[in-house]
UniProtKB/TrEMBL annotation:
Transmembrane segments: 12-29, 41-58, 96-114, 126-159, 217-235, 255-276, 314-334, 340-361, 373-395, 415-437
The organism's taxonomic lineage, starting at the top: Bacteria, Bacillati, Bacillota, Tissierellia, Tissierellales
Domain of life the protein comes from: Bacteria
Stated family: Belongs to the UlaA family.
Annotated function: The phosphoenolpyruvate-dependent sugar phosphotransferase system (sugar PTS), a major carbohydrate active transport system, catalyzes the phosphorylation of incoming sugar substrates concomitantly with their translocation across the cell membrane. The enzyme II UlaABC PTS system is involved in ascorbate transport.
InterPro entries per the UniProt record, alphabetical: Ascorbate-PTS_EIIC, PTS_sugar-sp_permease
One Gene Ontology cellular component annotation held by this UniProt entry: plasma membrane
Compartment(s) where it occurs, according to its Swiss-Prot or TrEMBL record: Cell membrane
GO biological process terms on file: phosphoenolpyruvate-dependent sugar phosphotransferase system
Entries under PANTHER family matching the protein: ASCORBATE-SPECIFIC PTS SYSTEM EIIC COMPONENT
Quaternary data: Homodimer.
Membrane topology: Multi-pass membrane protein
Name listed for the protein in its UniProt record: Ascorbate-specific PTS system EIIC component
Keywords carried by this UniProt record: Cell membrane, Membrane, Phosphotransferase system, Sugar transport, Transmembrane, Transmembrane helix, Transport
């Protein structure tokens, strides 16, 4: 009984479960004992680092939310995947990690036996999506094995389908390089590319523009996060007033308190990314090695930042236009009395920049600007509509920030609320048909849509 309790404790601790996933993969690859040991410890330490950094983010989001609510008399929410994930781990840790493992396995099975041969390698986004699925399905009433299997299948299916949807745009953006988009802001990037094709006729590429050196700091996300959050915290603290902020500051100067809170927020983001890198350093090679051995014609689906070198100027332009779109979206939500979604620098930088690259690929400068601006508007509206379907997580001061999280979360939540578990099973059946149909229609064994 004592041994079983130890096993149960290990499996109920997300950090150890993450290490266990890596260990199994490394043993399957027949790595030597010392590499299995270090490869198992890396993800465990990385997860603990991620949790510590996310706790810093959540701690410093709370005073900002209070200042906004008091000063502007509205509810303010900063979308941040790391923060909402850290909150979720307190109540959904085992479910999230179980869905992540099952989802990764389904992704490999789908890639092996269907024409969706895209291996999703952006592990932290799989982790965030597993968290979203555990929250939304749990709110509908799924529990135990049904929750894990349903969530794992949806995660694996979307990890395979989402790179395929816009692969023709991806090939344009990369000049035909054999990679795919492995990031759950993908629908926003494909929308940007589509908009670029509509508005960008005869528009020259962004790469013909010279960017001044003084703007290069935007590429350092820790510095740019700090600068942007300082502006938000100071505006909120001035509007809330020194008396209200002083109560939270425990005697410290209220404006100095606001600046330090903003800096702590950016430190939390930096710690989270360091933890994520540590997790991925061992977790992804384990799965990538297995996939390479088992799956012919597979295409790696990689993080959006991998695409930045293809159009560096579009990165800066896309970020700026997306951020403007987020600000306008925030004002619109405020004007209609909705939840105020404060533009988060991390989603607007990474997603806005990538939307700029895709918009530029099909529509040059106009495509990059208009496409990323529309992406920014959606990054304001989608999180606002997502909050009510997150169940107990919807009461926190943060939410998921990227495009696909909003679309899938809202879809599952609305259908689940209207039809219960039956609605979710209908979605799963539709996904299964979408996955199987291309193999029936044609005997080709190449990755679907991976042709220019």
């Amino acid at each position: 009984m004592g041994f079983l309790n130890v096993i149960k404790d290990i499996l109920s601790e997300p950090a150890f479960l993450m290490g266990l996933i890596a260990m199994v993969g490394l043993i399957a690859l027949r790595k030597p004992a010392h590499k299995v040991m270090t490869g198992t410890l890396g993800p465990i330490l990385g997860y603990l680092m991620l949790a510590a950094g996310a706790n810093v983010i959540v701690t410093n989001l709370d005073p900002l939310s209070q200042m906004i609510q008091h000063g502007f008399n509205i509810t303010g929410v900063v979308p941040n995947n790391e923060a909402i994930t850290s909150v979720a781990q307190k109540v959904l840790g085992v479910e999230t990690m179980s869905i992540l493992l099952v989802g990764l396995i389904f992704n490999l099975i789908i890639a092996r036996f269907t024409r969706y041969k895209y291996i999703f390698l952006t592990g932290h986004h799989s982790f965030f999506m597993a968290c979203l699925l555990s929250a939304t399905l749990g709110a509908i009433g799924f529990k135990g094995v049904a929750l894990v299997v349903a969530g794992g299948f949806i995660l694996g299916a979307w990890s395979s389908i989402s790179p395929a949807i816009g692969q023709k745009y991806t090939l344009k953006a990369t000049d035909g390089d054999e990679i795919a988009m492995g990031h759950f802001g993908s629908l926003g990037y494909y929308l940007s590319a589509f908009i670029g094709s509509l508005v960008g006729k005869d528009s020259k590429s962004t790469e013909d523009i010279e960017i001044p050196e003084k703007w290069s700091f935007l590429r350092n996300t820790t510095i740019s996060t700090a600068l942007t959050m300082i502006v938000f915290y100071l505006i909120a603290s001035i509007k809330a007033g020194p008396d209200f902020v002083g109560k939270m500051a425990n005697g410290q100067n209220p404006y100095l308190f606001a600046i330090i809170s903003a800096l702590n927020f950016s430190v939390g983001v930096a710690v989270v990314y360091a933890g994520v890198r540590m997790i991925l350093a061992d977790l992804i090679p384990a799965f990538e090695g297995i996939a390479t051995k088992l799956i012919p014609n597979s295409v790696p689906a990689v993080d959006c930042a991998v695409f930045f070198p293809y159009a560096p100027t579009a990165v800066i332009l896309g970020f700026a236009c997306s951020f403007v779109g987020g600000l306008i979206g925030m004002f619109i939500l405020g004007a209609v009395g909705g939840v105020l979604i404060i533009p988060g620098l991390v989603p607007h930088f990474f997603c806005g920049a990538t939307a700029g690259i895709y918009g530029n690929a099909t529509g040059g400068r106009r495509g990059a600007m208009v496409g990323s601006f529309i992406n920014g508007l959606f990054l304001a509206f989608l999180p606002a509509f997502l909050l009510p379907v997150l169940g107990q997580l919807g009461f926190n001061n943060t939410t998921f920030g990227d495009f696909d999280f909003g679309v899938l979360g809202i879809l599952l939540g609305k259908i689940g609320n209207a039809m219960g578990s039956v609605g979710v099973y209908i979605i799963i059946a539709i996904l299964a048909v979408v996955l199987i149909a291309p193999s029936i229609i044609t005997k080709k064994n190449t990755a679907i849509n991976n042709e220019e």
